[in-house]
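Sequence in, structure out.
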Amino acid sequence: MIGAIADDFTGGTDVAVAFRREGLRTHIFFGVPPDDVERSPSDAVVIALKSRMTPAPEAVQQSLDALRWLREHGADQIYFKYCSTFDSTPDGNIGPVLDALTDAIGAATVITTPSSPEHLRTQYQGYLFVDMLLLSDSHMRNHPVTPMTDSYLPRLLRTQTDATVGLIPHATVKEGTDSITAAIAAAETRAEKYILVDAVDQQDLQAIGRAIQGSSLTAGAAGLAGGLAAAVAAANSTLVGNTTPAQAGADREGRAAVLAGSCSARTLEQIAVMKGQGRPWYQLDAMVDDNPETLAADALAWYDALTTSDAPLIYSSLNPVELKRVQDALGIAESAAVLENATGRIAIGLVERGVTRIVAAGGETSGAIVTALDVSGGLIGSEAAPGVPWILTTSGHRIALLLKSGNFGGPELLADASAHRSDLA
């Protein structure tokens, strides 16, 4: 069984759907589950944490707790999933978590790449490209928490670890699995612990996946996870597989709502599409009231007064200028905490009012909703967009959740997902 540790909730769903696509029946847990948790047979288990933005010691401890649970429940391969835009400053968590997992497992080398071509993230000659731009020239340069001003991945990773970092260039990858395997062996003789591998398309990731099929620890974004899963599936005839849970299509045609908190350019575009369609919308404004209870109560009162059956949008997303104004006035952490708390309260109120499908935009927003609704896990269903699957919850409130990373999905994703019944098969 493959066990994955993801550093945020939407990243967890992204890697889970990468496993599911390759025929692996996949269960996701939000946070480390209790040892006696009930789950159906599965080929892969993903534990999604909220560790991307936490202090490194806390992220390390959460990840080690997840590792312990996965190994005790049958995982013989571990995948550490981080963001395809390598969200992590020199004080960040990718290096420290990698160090801790590597030491705990005893891995000699760890292959890694953030490449995820279907999301337009590619690694070439060690440089990370986002939407055909260098990472440092992309929207991530102005990220409010993890501004990315360097694109060279070996240098980025070296700022976070004392371990040696190597690189397998694209020319080697293009030669195929045998050449990649030989390059990994050569890197091991040089005592290179972390080896970044170039990948610009799915073929590259498939070749890398075959080369690391037996690795005890691998790290990267969902792209490499898919390559690994494909290799495992091809070599294993005893997978549980993508059997559809009996309840997958039951009671999932109810009312929907969209809760958005991401300030990414794509989420702002998706919000504009919903508004342009005439959907009812409500904006949470922490500058008007920084009490999350009041913010939530006002939003729910607005919802109660709606006379349309169209799925509403409730959002706190802001453009960069507005976001800076709020953060300067309230503080970065303080403003985020207020809005996440309010969003969680709103999610509870919506479910109490009969909403059975929630579309969430943003990793922290998704985490707030999942936590508030006491959802500890679920089965991965079909995708509303690449890397954005429906989740049929198996604990807490039994609803359908769509947890969208800020930059994922086309402009119509929020509108389309909330307008139509989810096909969870």
